[in-house]
């Protein structure tokens, strides 16, 4: 809300400056090149305007310059023409430079995002490599001991003693392999949640805060509709925030992947039946029919560069905290993801 | 298995070591196992044809690094790699650097045994070649300077008469020295002598 107010204020201020410039430029002689200062307007508006809006604003400034020139009653006509040319050149050059810089910044950001993703995949690759290595050691020992056992039995007469020793080793190594599997499982299950009581909306706000840049970069409008009188929740704050961040990122990616029509994310928090819930609705590409059943499965993805673990991890985390997570398509396009965590019972406090 | 031979196994995993020890013992091959390259170096090698079974991934020095350093350490043992995680690039690289085989755990025992036999065979050939060249070198050293001169020219295809004129000695002397050289080098015919001296770097030897 406040952000919107600030944006409105800024736009009003810029409009005021433009009106003043127009008035001065029109009222003064041709020799006064007040229109040059439109470049300042363009420069100031750049940080909070999109690419297209900036081009429109620049065009509008150029139009105003020409109009002022036409309306200016007195002065030296040739100097006026030259001044107008200089002003227009200044406006156009400013806009052009801003757009160029923006494109470069965008490219740098894209490269960074890509790197982060690669690093994530690489770390998973490293993890699976070391798991494979760990498990393959006892497996190799088992296979080799099995073969040795076979050789001892094939001796004439069979060397039963050595064969039995080999079998003992096989049993021991099999136990070791299953211990490794158990350890890996406990690793991926993660730490048991350490539950604390915290204000849900604050946790949401923090995640939204760090995602703001990504949301604005994709030209997405975020509507926050957080219930003001939510009870506190009892859950692992970090894990809950991981889930929110994950769902928000998914929503952004779903919108970025689709055509640029409505670009909104709607986040609603509410309380129902002793649980606090958060729904995140996006206007993105939605959930293709037939994959809904697989949504929360590990390593199942429709994204070209995805790993298919985000939603699976989200579900694991939500359920570990005693909540539920669900997804459903939105009829007008897009999808809604909703999860709940237990609220702190009011009557106890 | 013909003659004594020994297989050295270096793997940090005790289960794998024990299993390999037993497997090789069950087919009658002498095995020595080590948990690190350092332990292997401390023990040293026996005077018998052998083969080295080397784990790729070990704490401390990796098998790959050790393989690269082996030539510098004067270890000419053929190497069979075993690894817990197969990596094609790593395997190709190891083979390029002269490894006999690159096996991913768990491996087929016959493949491993074949690779080990192959390695031992190569080591036996190499040891034989080294022994032969040392023997020839010793024989050559037993020749007098005059006999060596004559032998050198004989091998180059010169006739006795030509050798006599090059060395400025009588043809009789050449004949005597030539016969001595043939006897000392244990060469019955001229092609024999050419073959034996071929193992020596005659230009480098005096």
Structural class of chain A: alpha+beta
**Helices and strands of chain B, in N-to-C order?**
EHEHEHEHEHHHHH
The percentage helix of chain B is: 40-55%
**Strand percentage of chain B, roughly?**
5-15%
Q: What string gives the helices and strands of chain A in order?
A: HHHHHEHEEHEEHEE
**What is the tally of helical segments of chain B?**
9
Low-confidence stretches of chain B: none
Q: What is the CATH homology-level superfamily of the largest domain in chain B?
A: Response regulator
Taken from the alpha-carbon principal axes, the silhouette of chain B is elongated
Order of the strands making up the biggest sheet of chain A: 2-4-5-7-6
Number of domains of chain A: 3
By CATH, the topology of the largest domain in chain A is Heat Shock Protein 90
Indicate the CATH architecture of the largest domain in chain B.
3-Layer(aba) Sandwich
Distance between the termini of chain A: 32 Å
């Amino acid at each position: 809300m406040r952000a919107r107010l600030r944006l409105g204020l800024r736009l009003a201020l810029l409009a005021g400056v433009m009106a003043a410039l127009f008035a001065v430029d029109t009222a003064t002689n041709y020799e006064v090149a007040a229109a040059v200062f439109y470049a300042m307007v363009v420069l100031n508006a750049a940080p909070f305007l999109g690419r297209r809006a900036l081009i429109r604003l620049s065009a509008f400034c150029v139009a105003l310059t020409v109009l002022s020139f036409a309306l200016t009653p007195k002065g030296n006509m040739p100097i006026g023409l030259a001044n107008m040319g200089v002003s227009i050149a200044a406006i156009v050059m400013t806009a052009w430079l801003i757009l160029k810089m923006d494109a470069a910044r965008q490219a740098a950001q894209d490269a960074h995002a890509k790197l982060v993703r690669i690093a994530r995949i690489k770390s998973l690759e490293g993890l699976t490599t070391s798991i494979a290595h760990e498990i393959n050691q006892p497996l190799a020992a088992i296979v080799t001991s099995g073969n040795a056992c076979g050789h001892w039995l094939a001796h004439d007469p069979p060397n039963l003693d050595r064969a039995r020793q080999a079998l003992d080793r096989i049993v021991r190594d099999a136990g070791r392999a299953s211990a490794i599997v158990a350890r890996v499982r406990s690793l991926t299950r993660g730490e048991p949640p350490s539950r604390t009581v915290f204000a849900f909306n604050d946790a949401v706000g923090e995640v939204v805060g760090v995602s703001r840049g990504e949301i604005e970069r994709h030209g997405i409008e975020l509507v926050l509709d957080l219930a003001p009188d939510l009870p506190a929740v009892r859950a692992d704050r970090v894990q809950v925030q991981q889930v929110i961040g994950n769902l928000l990122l998914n929503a952004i990616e779903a919108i970025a992947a689709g055509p640029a029509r409505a670009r909104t994310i709607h986040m609603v928090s509410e309380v129902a039946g002793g649980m606090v819930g958060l729904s995140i609705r996006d206007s993105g590409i939605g959930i293709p029919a037939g994959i809904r059943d697989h949504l929360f499965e590990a390593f199942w993805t429709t994204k070209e560069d995805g790993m298919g673990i985000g939603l699976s991890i989200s579900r694991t985390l939500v359920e570990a905290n005693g909540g539920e997570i669900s997804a459903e398509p939105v009829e007008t396009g897009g999808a809604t993801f909703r999860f709940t965590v237990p609220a702190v019972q009011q009557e106890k406090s | 298995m013909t003659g004594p031979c020994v297989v050295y196994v270096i793997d940090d995993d005790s289960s794998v070591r024990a299993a390999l020890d037993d497997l090789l013992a069950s087919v009658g091959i002498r095995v020595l196992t080590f948990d690190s390259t350092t332990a292997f170096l401390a023990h040293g090698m026996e005077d018998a044809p052998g083969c080295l079974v080397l784990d790729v991934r070990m704490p401390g020095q990796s098998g790959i690094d050790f393989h690269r350093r082996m030539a510098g350490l004067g270890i000419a043992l053929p190497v069979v790699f075993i690894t817990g995680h197969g990596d094609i690039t790593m395997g190709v690289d190891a083979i390029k650097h002269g490894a006999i085989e690159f096996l991913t755990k768990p491996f087929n025992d016959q493949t491993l045994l074949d690779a080990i036999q192959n390695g031992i065979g190569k080591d036996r050939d190499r040891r034989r070649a080294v022994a032969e060249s040392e023997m020839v070198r010793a024989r050559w050293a037993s020749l007098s300077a005059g006999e060596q001169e004559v032998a050198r020219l004989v091998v180059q295809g010169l006739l006795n008469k030509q050798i006599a004129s090059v060395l400025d000695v009588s043809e009789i002397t050449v004949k005597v020295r030539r016969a001595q050289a043939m006897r000392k080098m244990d060469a019955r015919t001229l092609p024999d002598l050419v073959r034996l001296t071929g193992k020596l770097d005659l230009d480098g030897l005096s």
